[in-house]
Amino acid sequence: MYSAIFSPDGRNILSGGEDRIVRVWDVASAEEVHPSACTSVAGIRAGLQP
Fold first, then answer.
1. What's the 3-state SS for the chain?
2. CA distances (Å), origin 45, targets 1, 15, 29, 50
3. For the chain, which has fewer Cβ within 10 Å, the N-terminal or C-terminal residue?
4. What region does 8 belong to: left with phi over 0, alpha with psi -120 to 50, or beta?
5. Sheet containing 22-26: which strands, arranged edge to edge?
6. What is the pLDDT of residue 15?
7. How far apart are CA 4 and CA 49, in angstroms?
8. How many other C-beta atoms are found inside a 10 Å radius of the C-beta of residue 35?
9. Which position has the higher pLDDT, 44 or 10?
10. Cα separation of 37 and 8, whole Å?
11. What is the pLDDT of residues 16-41, one digit of tens each?
12. How far is CA 10 from CA 6, 13, 19, 30, in A?
């Protein structure tokens, strides 16, 4: 994993790694919520800002 950020509500973590895929994780269950076509955590960071 190269980068990770919490969603504004703290319920999810978005992570990005060597495979260049952004993954969305549920904090409570530690399970992946759904795969993402986005390939940059930095690219979606602006969308998570309140």
1. CCEEEECCCCCEEEEECCCCCEEEEECCCCCEEEECCCCCHHHHHHHHCC
2. 16, 11, 23, 11
3. C
4. alpha
5. 3-6, 12-16, 22-26, 32-35
6. 86
7. 14
8. 10
9. 10
10. 21
11. 888 878 888 999 999 998 766 565 55
12. 6, 8, 24, 13
pTM confidence score: 0.66
Q: Which two tokens stand for residue 17?
A: 């790694």
What is d(CA 17, CA 10) in angstroms, rounded to the nearest whole number?
Answer: 20
CB atoms near residue 45 (< 10 Å): 12
pLDDT score of 27 = 95
Residue 22's Cβ-count burial label (10 Å; 0-12, 13-18, 19+) is buried
pLDDT of residue 18: 83
The pair of three-digit structure tokens given for residue 7, joined into one six-digit string: 């969603």
